[in-house]
């Protein structure tokens, strides 16, 4: 009996000790730098969003949030790396709409976007712009439509690879125009932008976070924005719908994720830091300069974000299937 009592007492003490260690561990988080994986090349629009958010989150978390660019395969390489990472809160993923569309675009996706991650919160929804090299002949969106129809495969369109936001925008453009272009995939829209400015490709769709400075600096031509309303930072640029392309709308939302199984209290700590970043006047002002703004508070919770991803997967699946575009 004494042996049994001693064993129970030891077990209880062990359980208490383990529980105390777990609480202490959660309270100590983060105790070292955190890596935020961006699944696209440096210099692109998602990279810009990530660096603004990471800098502010570093201050509230008390540890540096380091952005690591892991480009390739339309964002799936970087996302896959995070899906396999330890669920300890030290590896984050900042991805855009491609996180949801990958579920339908890839036949052999090595992870499930809906179930292999914990959602931390939505960050921003960025408008896109259709831009061109300065030497391209068309002056208006109407002329672009006629130009593409007349030249078809001779017109080159740059994108960041299958599943990227620029790829989705290009698919919608070709569908709306009723003509195909020669697509030129890159390891991110940063390198694509370099070639567009240099005149090596004709057209590209990219987020305002990456194009506003180039447009204002006169380095590229702009034909329209992809949202229903004009962008405050580019008030004179018509929407695609104003230019005659009915129902042409693409907004590129971004969200933060951690691997499945990450403790809830760590997710909540990261969500609190994300909210602080999105309420930071410097971040808000910088987002405005780039033609976007932080998501509203009611859309930043992990629960809303999780349900939103599931809904977006369902929304894009029939569109991608009807286009017949897949990647291995």
Query: What is the first-to-last residue Cα distance?
Result: 64 Å
CATH architecture of the largest domain: 3-Layer(aba) Sandwich
- Summarize the biggest pleated sheet: 9 strands, mixed
How many separate domains make up the residues? 2
Order of helices and strands: HEHEHEHEHEHEHEHEEHHH
Shape descriptor reads globular
Q: Might you state the CATH topology name of the largest domain? A: D-Maltodextrin-Binding Protein, domain 2
User: Tally of extended strands?
Assistant: 9
Level-1 CATH class name of the largest domain: Alpha Beta
The CATH homologous superfamily of the largest domain is termed Bordetella uptake gene, domain 1
Helical segment count: 11
Mean pLDDT: 89
Strand content: 15-25%
From the alpha carbons, calculate the radius of gyration and give it in angstroms.
22 Å
**pLDDT under 50 segments (min length 5)?**
1-24
**Class of secondary structure makeup:** alpha/beta
Specify the helix fraction band.
40-55%
Signal peptide: 1-26
Family: Belongs to the UPF0065 (bug) family.
Keywords: Signal
Protein name: Tripartite tricarboxylate transporter substrate binding protein BugD
